[in-house]
Batch of 4 targets.
Target 1
Amino acid sequence: MLEYCRNLVVGGLNVNINKQRCNLQIAPLSYPWQVVEGDGESWVILRCKCKLTLKEVMELHGATLEDFAWKVSLEQGENHLYQGKIALNIYYNSKSFFAIDKEFAESDEEEDLIRTSIINEESSKEVNFREETEYSSDFASIIVDKEELTKKEEEDFSSAEVWNVEIPWQAWLHGMGQDREPLVEKVHVAQVGLSSLLVEALIKLEKKQDLLKSSDDNEIIFKNTEELYFTIQEEKIAEIGGLHAVGSFFTTYFNSNKQLTLENLKKINLVFISDVTGGERFWVASHIIEEKNILNLGENLQVQPADFQCYKKKLKLILYDDHTVIWKAEYMIRAMFAENMRSMNIVQEEAPKTVETKEPVPRKRPGEKWLKKGRNNNSKTTTNKTLISIKLGI
Amino acid sequence: MLWPNEFPRSVNNINLTRDKEKKASLAGEGLDPSILKEYNITPQSSEEFKGGWLLKDQKKDLWVFKYSGDRNRLLIALEWQENLAKNKCSVLKMKRTKGDKLYLENNKEFFFVTEWISGQKFEVQQERHLLSCFKELGKIHKITENYSNVIIQNTRIDWTLIIQKKLKDLLQYHSFLRGKIKFTDFERFFMEHFDYFYNAGQEAVENMVLLQVDSARPHLLVNNFRSTDLLINDNKVVFTNLLKWSRGPKILDLVLLLNSYMPLLKWNSQAFKNILKTYKEETVLTKQDEQVLLALLRFPGRFWFYAYQYFVDFVEEKVLSEKFKKYIREYYWRDQCLNTVETWLWEG
């Protein structure tokens, strides 16, 4: 469960809005990718497992980055689709089951119990199965930071076996600002069974976002400082990867106090590293909140803003304790109107066009065809009429 | 029914040791004297022993056993044991009461008396102990084939169905775990090896069906090879407790005995072959029996048992994880051994 408490500062006044406990969902794990795309930031978690045949993993040594290639394959305005591939070398030691010189235990008592259980037809029908609440593990787990990934200490890994992993990936990077280069933030290598290995890679895509300085009348800017407290009860957090949000379903209306109110949904994604070993450690916890902001745009607005753009500047993202994260950021919301958007060449207005129409084909009068035969052939041209006026004397 | 695992103070030599400093009650603490009277026993000393009393009189050692289970089960066991003893099988000889009964009932408890013989503790690391065990078991099986018991013949256990139900349990556990995000170490071991063990179990059940395991006349089974219930006397294994008997194909006794002690020998295929040869010297083992034996040995009974203990009995996870790891390693040794033995059997 992720719960948060929010303090909102608007125009110098402290306004507590939406202070509530929220039940969060730990996002389901996904193989081979788990992607969270936010505004200005995207995270890609890549995962791969392998099981050794007839061997037991004895020791884990670490991982190195063999290759990390990427490209921007699609652009839609400020939104970019990144595609790439990551190649890792995982170093470990294993031993054949038949080479392990371990004594097996005496089994007579246990076999006797098993035989009795089978005969007594003990069964699991209609029984509530055990559910653990505390998780701990004896499996080895190593997290390699980005600085260590490119180091190749040959003497440490010379006697080790190698597992080569190549995983393709793809993610959108949305939002305003300049793209930073994608980075492999961390790699996690773990033993997850007697003979099984797991590798996870955490890739970050980010835009460099600054708060706007424009004071154009047509770009109404609303500034907001947000401080949120997140608590995750089910997991022990070792380290935070990142936090980002995506806003959508914007609605504006005048409330009973004639204040322009902006309502929207915002999905918050927290990428973090679990302290519990034995399995996957790169997790995502998400929550959707409802936001409500009062925009000081006056009472006489004739139409609502056509669109909104959000900018954020992270001020603080810290791990307070094993289960609590504090997030503080400055937000800027730019309300954009149609005229403003036109001047931004979002839609080019076309000059009014003159419509040319052709004159219709002159239509002959009824019987004209036959009448023309008995007359002067020069009647093609328009008829010359001679007006004769007769003055009558009285 | 609880089976105490205790030996008297002297573990290697199971003679009753007289503690001269301790005054032992002639009747034995908690033992009703009327029972001794019915058996015409006048012990010189007694001591509590293995859920009963070990009595010493002028001629021999006697073991008075207290039983709190089903009367019919007791009667079947004692009659069978008496028959085996008469046919010189390695079991303890029964002593009848003055009224020629095999047991006495007293306050809803049953008492019976057997002779007790001194001997050594059964040690599987000594190959001759293990070979003797199979040899004597072969003799018991041979005598038992001609031993008829109406109750046994009229009631059957459907072993194929029983074992198939264990596979169904495994599927339930697997289905439960598939809905989870986080796992304990034990659950990861289970998921990691589920396919392998489940397929082995499925194959075993299919072979049992094809070989019609349950259609044969049911056999009385010893069904108890705990080292605390075996002793070595004059280089022969003696089966001291037949009360856990069951019924079914005699192969089930071989399966239980092999599963109990072959892990300690790291499933050595040569030892396995010697065991089969020794057993076959005493009784017949058909080709079909051999196929059933291999099929049942491949069934991952312990995989099911640990999973049951984990999901249903809530045994401590760390303890089970360690056991499970050892079992997984042992199973690969077992597989290798059975493959070798199977080839050897096929080659005749």
Target 2
Amino acid sequence: MYELKIALRQVFSSKKQTLFAILAVALAVTVITVMMAMISGFQDELVTSSIENNPHIVIGPQDEKEEFIHLYRYTSALTSEKEGVIAVSPKYLGQAALEYRDNAEGVSFQGIDPMAEESVMRISEDVVEGDLMTLVHTRYGVLLGDQLAEKLEVNVGDRVDVVFPGSQTTSFKVIGLIHTGTSADEVTAYARFDSVQDFFNEPGVASTIEVRVADPYQADIIAGSIERETGLDAVSWSEANAEILSLLEVQSILVNIFYFLIYGIAGFGIANTLITIVAQRTREIGILKAMGTSKKSIMFIFLFQSMILGAAGLVLGTILGYITTIALQSYEIEIPPETYFGLQTLPLEVEPLNFVYAAFFAFIVNILSGIYPAQKAAKLDPVKAIESA
Amino acid sequence: MTNESPVIELKNLTKVYQNGVEFRALDNANLRIEKGEFVAIVGPSGSGKSTLMHLIGLLDSPSSGTLLIDGKDVTKMSDKERSGMRNSILGFVFQYHHLLPDFTALENVMMPLLIAGKSREKAKNVAEELLKEVGLEGRMDHRPGELSGGQNQRVAIARALSCSPSIVLGDEPTGNLDTKTGDMIYELLRRLNKEYNQTFIVVTHNEELASKADKIIRLVDGKITVQ
């Protein structure tokens, strides 16, 4: 392989050009690997938080005219029998006002069975003061979102009045505070299921039934089968978050265009370097031809050069990309929780496959950008090439 | 010997450059060069000496006519076949040495052998032998930048001979050297010619050097006169 030997010699004898071309590729690969880590980390985080912060399936009334599920006990039992279902939790959702001294706030007054809700939503993880299970034996107890409590200026142990037109104003004791890091903290009040039913004078009905499944990615299928069997409306987390998920798709298209442009720039850098090398080596190319080097071999000499530049660049780039990703990961960037769905730091994920992709495409781009200069070299007229000074 | 077919035979070989105006760089050239001859091509500049060299050297293609090398019509060959012939049958020495600057003298001489697909070991042995022959045994690992003009030209000659070509072409091989070094190089070429019985074709301005050749071809306005 004398072609490779010549390629190596030529590449490493023009050190500055070589260095800059390698840096161009390395930089492109670095930027792309870091971006990939950010984006896949962000998407993963978003999907995980969608799965964790929402019920996997929410069963609701048949159509919009109906307000309630009437046979919720039967439906709950039927659903919990289904394969892949871990837990079900019927819920009563109502709007009411909470009053404490001179403060009043509109709230989403939610009636839950603490045990069932815990097994579906794991809400005790979000309880920052008090204990969820106190609700089991406290008929008039309520857990408030911490933001809500702050606005009402109540503390655990205080009593608040729940007010709704047509309902008997009832006093509830604050037994705990909840912090989820989302806007729900400003409006949520949890009380016992039967207490809320009684308060709204709607015994025997539920607004929704929440379902937890073993494999969140099976939620769509299970939701479909619940709909068929009960005739009720069942919405999976992916259906409920369809907008976010389609936003992620749009985002990945944009990001891919961005990657394409970055690779394009790096590719032009390589092509430019090689065109310069070809121009500088014109006479040598002529001599090589006079010595019997075929057009094909001349092409190989310059394609090898672009591969050498590319390979060096992508190795350097993946190393730099990895270091940058790790560095950014350990550096916790505070972002306002409202902006990023409760994320507190930038989620970066080191996905080995991403590095493989980035490196692979960088290499392809390098070969492609080597083709034009290599052809240019191969097509040189040996007489003119030798006579060029 | 004269009954043997010639190494090179030109039949009505013509090269026309169309550069706005038609320029007949070589006009109906007919020529036979026998094996082992040392031929000098002389003529004023622009007379077509280089064009003739480039055509014989398969670096350029004629506009019309036939060129036979070793009895084979080379005008109808593919790039691959022509490259192969340049490698195995032809050796070039240019006015300027045109060595590859990134390679040592030894590597430069090895290069045509490597292009021919010979093993490194074989190439190295041949190259070392040839560099000794041209008197550069102590300079093998020097790069062209570290050698004098005469030394580089000797490396270039060794390179031209590395694949044992049947034809060696010299385009003013001494033109860039002082008279003394030039004479030395010329003597070297003449000696190698006799030693290996290779055909040498040398373009030169120098009438005195030309007079030492077996045959002188004079070119005037693209037309040949053989002496």
Target 3
Amino acid sequence: MAVHRRLQLSEVGDVSVVRFVDRKILDEANIQELGQELFHLIEDEDRKNLLLNFSSVEFLSSAALGKLITLDKKVKAHGGKLKLSNIRPEIYEVFAITKLNKLFDIRDDEADALATF
Amino acid sequence: MSRDFSAWTIDRTIPSELLSGRRVLEELLERLQGENWTSREIFGIRLALEEAVVNAIKHGNCLDPNKQVHVICQSSSEKIWIKISDEGPGFDPESVPDCTDAEHIDVPHGRGIMLMRNFMSRVEYNDQGNVVTMEKVRETPAA
């Protein structure tokens, strides 16, 4: 299993729960690395169901949104499901403004999200 | 836009490096943290600054080390006014596709300007498209 520098990973049944190491997801190099680690979970480790728990994330930029959109495509292409949870109000507003709250399945908390896989 | 500022001004010219942009953002945020802005306002200003500075460095100047980015930020009791200029050819902000349209919703880029317009009170580009001016009016004026 690969070493993850930007992610913390746990397993709940057949769902891989991802938490983020960085409180602010905005640095270009970090976002690139984050994207590669997320894509690796799907493309190389063959995981299908991912839950991204944003409880530790205080800030993200549009570059991070781009990685999430690409991840969503990869998960769907592999026949899996991607869900997001624990997004604080300011960040949820970013998803709402860009209407990505319609593209992503966003749940209030981890338990709620896990129940919907 | 009228300009009536008295509190403080930050005026920086930086090379086209993302790290230099980060330093200016941190300096501006440090000033804002000590003022009477709400957390939501600071989040929005930070996001708009982040998007505009990265756009100027990466897309405007194309990370060209021979080109610079000029950032001016003026704060008053009522608002913050920010002007970011790059030395690139500019672009037409109206030509950026609406990322909320169904046909563009899953395109992984092009959301920065929309976020800037939503979180700031006003966002304007010059005719050439290489200078963006933004204002954020305080919900609660500073004492």
Target 4
Amino acid sequence: MIRFAVTSRSCFRAAAKHCRPLRSGCYFSSTICAGGKAPEPTESEDIVRHTHSEGPPTPEIDHPNAPKPTESEDAVHSDRNAEVTLDDLKRVSKTTDLDPTKLKDQTKASYFGVASNDSLHVAGGSKKGVRPLFSRIQNDAYDVVIVGGGVSGLTLAASLKASPHTSALKVALIEGMSLESAARWDPSPDQLSNRVSSITPASKSFLEKIGVWEHVYPERVQEYDNMHVWDGVSGSRIQFDSFHLHPVGQSMAYMTENINLQHALLSYLSESAATGNSVTIFDNTKVEEITPTSVALEDVDLSSWPSVRMSNGSTVYARLLIGADGVNSPVRSYAGIESRGWDYGQHGLVATLTMEWNDRQNVAWQRFLPTGPIALLPMPDGKASLVWSTTPKLAAHLKSLSPEAFCTLVNAAFRLDMTDLNYLYTRFNAEDISAEFEWRDGLLPMEDEGAKFPLRVAEVQEGSRASFPLRMRHCDSYVAPRVALVGDAAHSTHPLAGQGLNLGQGDVATLSSVLEKAVVRGADIGDEVVLQEYWAERYPVNHVMLGVIDKLQKLYCTDAAPIVALRSVGLDVVNSLDWVKTMIMKQATGV
Amino acid sequence: MRPKLPLLTAVSLSRRYTPQLSPSRYPGHVPTNMFQKTLLAVGSGVTAFFNPRRGDIIATLGEATALPFLMYRLRDVMLSDATGRRILREKPRITSKSLNIDALRKYPANSVGKVYSEWLDLEGVSPDTRAPVRYIDDPECAYVMQRYRECHDFYHAITGLPIIIEGEIALKMFEFANTLIPMTGIGALLAPSRLKPKQRERLINIYFPWAIKNGATAKPLINIYWEEILMKDIQELRDELGIEKPPNLRELRKLKISHL
């Protein structure tokens, strides 16, 4: 278990009482629990929990960017405790009915005043041997509880901590999987994750703004400024160049592994914890149940707050619950928000490939086959990431093929006619496939290599072939009282435009600025009226993007001659109008 | 002072209106543009109509009217089939030498080779009478046309239709239903206008229905590697392809039957 706990020194006071961020106090810690549960306090640990005077042994953290708890946590905490002022205690006493002077004597032991059982006035707790409920709620209540430690969830946590207005909010993040591997990620040059995303310039500048981008390993980011998209049936094509971009000459997108982003976000959160703005992270912890809160906290009305029971047995209460928990979002189910859409009947097959030559690495390729688009996106060091949307049956076949045969089919899918490709799909023998491919490929003009279709793929990284179903989903609303959805929980789309992650980043950027505004104005951040602004801003933007992608998918998933003819003429016209291309790129890059 | 040229001369002299022909793409290829192909099609069409025995003219008509998308379609029919792909890859040619007609004559009765050689002897033709393809621009499509042309005699053999004009027209209709090569359709539709009403009636009542039904439902004949199945029993092959033998045309002619 790695734990670094640094207390917050910022004392945030908002104008209105109800919107005052929860006292972050001593338990404002970022806890990365690897392979274990979040700290579960026992009755005698109540105090311990505040002071961390005891705790599991802290192992070495060999992560370069993580703040190392070199001094023992005790040191940190005793230091903190020494700084407890009378002012603090007075404030505490207000809520606990404790005599500040009496508390002063017990400073070492407690901050919130849970020093001795008899001095407490506890709602619903038995006097002896039971952890006082009041303090438990105080500890377990958060301003923002984010469910989901994916890129969207972590980005929201980071951007809340990045703003001076929202950094004092008490934030918890719950993730079902372990985040340790992402936190400790050390990129090894020959292994590339198959989960990659294209980051648009808009998303990148947002990550730069909140200070996360500097934590991204730059050697694992590949930018491209050239894109070829063509029709597999008619061959009509559109080419985007850096001069179609706005401003001219910038990159079109940045390809990177999702884990690189997650790592950067976690590094940023550790760094932010070191300066006193921490996020409590419960990883390896599943959300068991989300229910309305039935217990009461004295000066805060908790009745409308969602309470999240976790698999580690503890419960957290959220002023604002964020669903960043993917397509089958439990938070969305709790909020009763309907998600509508349809399945594409396609699977997205991903794989990490090595190209034959480390050349033309600034180009992204996408060919629309009637079974779905196939895209080859450049990655650093002559690698590439494949996203092949195809029928579930073909995806299963492609996964079962030998690596050599698979690479040949990928090459064939970018080069050969549909007839040849359909024939190759029916072959199983690698040599047979290779011989057929070489014959047909030999008939293609040599000068087209690298100009009209990508160079050859040489290898597929072992175990990197995976597939997942593709669907279109859009929620009726992104917000409910004390609930907001971001990223895939709110919408999911076909990967053909590489927009999935970027739409989520757009959500996060908007939501955090809405929350910032609410805090500045002294409004309750969980209030639906506050959250409506987020939904109102993001829904139309996402809806248009989802709609365009959906129509493109439908337009290209047919080989009916009249439709092919029409779409080819359309594409040729667009390809000859540079200003239209600039307009498209402006939308796609978000700048 | 620049000499004043009449407008039309100036236009015709400008580079823009000089036909730009692509270079030859295979041995014997004569590159032509759209205008030239149209001219060829009309010229050969008119000649073939009045002189249907000119095989070379019919061949030219076939090439000039071979719409690229229909030729690509036929090529794709071959590319979708393992044997068809092998034929396209190996590009075999059928000549009296490559087939060794003398050896075929000694094949067992009812084998494809024997029936073919018998048919050649009966009609007095040779596989060497086929003209090479010149006007189809895509090398692969040119080969497909060449292959069709060279296999044409096998189609006669397997259907038993004679090379007299009625038989040719019936076979052309069969080929059109099977290959969609435009020339075969043009021939099958226009040539009957030169026939006697009795003959035309026979075609329309007996042979066209047979040709359309069998041509459309049979497996693509272009995918047969004839050279490899010469020993095969011809009835077995017909069953495999889904072709039923039409009534004997020569006998129907003798009996002057135009209805069945």
